Amino acid sequence: MELEKLTAHGGDPATDQASGTRKVFIKTYGCQMNVYDSQRMTDALAADGYVGTETMEEADLVLLNTCHIREKAAEKVYSELGRIRGLKAERGRRGLETIVGVAGCVAQAEGQEIMRREGAVDLVIGPQTYHKLPDALRRVRDGEKIVETTYAIEDKFEHLPAPRRAEIVSRGVTAFLTVQEGCDKFCTFCVVPYTRGSEVSRPVSQILAEAERLADSGVREVTLLGQNVNAWHGLGPDGTEWGLGRLLFALADIPGLSRLRYTTSHPRDMDDALIAAHRDLPALMPYLHLPVQSGSDRVLKAMNRRHTADDYLRLIDRIRTARNDIAMSGDFIVGFPGESESDFEATMQLVRTVGYAQAFSFKYSPRPGTPGAEMDGHVAEAVKDERLQRLQALLLEQQRDFTARLVGTTMNALIEKPGRKPGQRVGRSPWLQPVIVDETAGEIGDIVSVRIINAGQSSLFAVPA
Ligand code: SAH
Ligand code: SF4
Ligand code: F3S
Q1: 160 CA from centroid of ligand 3 (Å)
Q2: CA distance readout (Å), 265 to 205, 262, 424
Q3: Is 300 in the pocket of ligand 2 (CB under 6 A)?
Q4: Ligand 1 atom at shortest distance from the alpha carbon of 367
Q5: Among 293, 399, 308, CA closest to 347
Q6: Helix (H) or strand (E) holding 453
Q7: Whose Cα sits closest to atom 13 in ligand 1?
Q8: Is the pLDDT of residue 83 over 70?
Q9: Most CB atoms closer than 10 Å: which of 29, 105, 326, 365?
């Protein structure tokens, strides 16, 4: 989170600590939407005179951008806050003030409770209210403790300052762009509808303007983000209603933007136009993250996914017919209440049928306030562990096979950053794997043709083709 050096404007001498500039440290947990939000908060704070730091000890403002999806994720936040309490006290002894803020999904879910549990926290701010951050900080400096978790009626993105060129450049040649937030699906295991609110799509003009800005600053690959990104819709400049497929075509027209991706999709929102975009739009990368959670219809029903395993398999057939080299990725939950050995076996069978290039799998974690937590038939932890191991072994084997099959092929790689060893660069394959090449292959930002000569579990080793 490198920021260009800025001088605080507005002249607020009381807050000019030691060096004269305020420093912010943001730690991000959870999904890519939090990564994007942290960047936008950094942008908002830069406009307010804050400079980013990678060292928590020297920060005047420590922000945790948190995740509530599983119990462990939420617990990590509290243990980190304990550590920060010590740090704040230590800085206090040196006469330095430290503001501690909790943002993200734990902030939204627990609100006031966070301050009750951890007295060091000055500010709790939910994901829909980040545009109010500079104002909230001013109030904190005036001695208030603030909990700001109302779902804002106004669009936060309209009020957050646009990312600046220097910041975009420092973040590299790939970028995230949130186009949709929230969820109306209410899967019975999931907190997202409660922490992020209902589905909202950002307007077309706002998205295109931001994408143009990214491209102008050297970004070559953009990943559109949303909790249900393929539920995105908006009114196009032509007066018709656009879906994500149409939006992708408009984005592909922006000079410099050569690669597009989107995540996370819901199977129920994969419409024909989006599938057709996978067939007709070369800029759309052949990779699709399409979570299914379970292969058992009984479990899918209890999860309120509102699709069957067969619906999902037929959908994948249609997608593969449109684009036969597409790599599939997914999310799985094992040990949802009531999951029997044969339900779990149905999940294994679905995985064998689909063949994933990559996937995430989790043990079911009961979340307060969700219907799943109240259901009968909770599965023993040891059984969850054992099922997770079996599933992950299968998924890892599929990932290794997928990577190995690419050896000997030629593909385009986007050169992204310097490699770990001198003389190396790391690129990105169309299927999202890191590609290790010699620096003579191309400059950062170049899209170059490479031949794959070797493969690891998930990375590829290549030479210029
Ligand atoms: N909107 C996305 C998922 C967002 S959450 C979708 O519908 O697919 C990311 C992943 O976390 C989910 O796909 C699910 O696999 C996992 N997850 C969500 N809640 C969980 C819980 N209570 N326990 C375990 N895993 C969970
Ligand atoms: Fe959660 Fe389901 Fe919404 Fe995805 S679709 S965010 S899993 S409730
Ligand atoms: Fe976590 Fe919130 Fe993302 S709960 S996964 S940070 S939407």
Answers
A1: 20
A2: 22, 8, 34
A3: no
A4: 22
A5: 293
A6: strand 447-455
A7: 331
A8: yes
A9: 105
pLDDT of residue 10: 33
DSSP letters for 381-428: HHHHHHHHHHHHHHHHHHHHHHHHTTTT-EEEEEEEEE-SSTTEEEEE
Least confident of 160-169, 252-261, 325-334: 160-169
Atom of ligand 3 nearest to the CA of 29: 6
CB 102 within 8 Å of CB 129: no
The pair of three-digit structure tokens given for residue 402, joined into one six-digit string: 């997928």
- Identify the pLDDT of residue 11: 34
263 ligand 2 Cβ < 6 A: no
Instruction: For residue 303, give the 3-state DSSP assignment.
Output: coil
Residues having CB closer than 6 A to ligand 1 are: 69-70, 189-190, 192, 227-228, 264, 266, 291, 293, 331, 333, 362, 364-365, 367
Residue nearest to atom 7 of ligand 3 (CA): 192
Report which of 435, 392, 400, 430 is spatially closest to residue 417, judged by C-alpha positions.
Answer: 435
Q: What is the pLDDT of residues 363-404, one digit of tens each?
A: 999 999 999 999 999 999 999 999 999 999 999 999 999 999
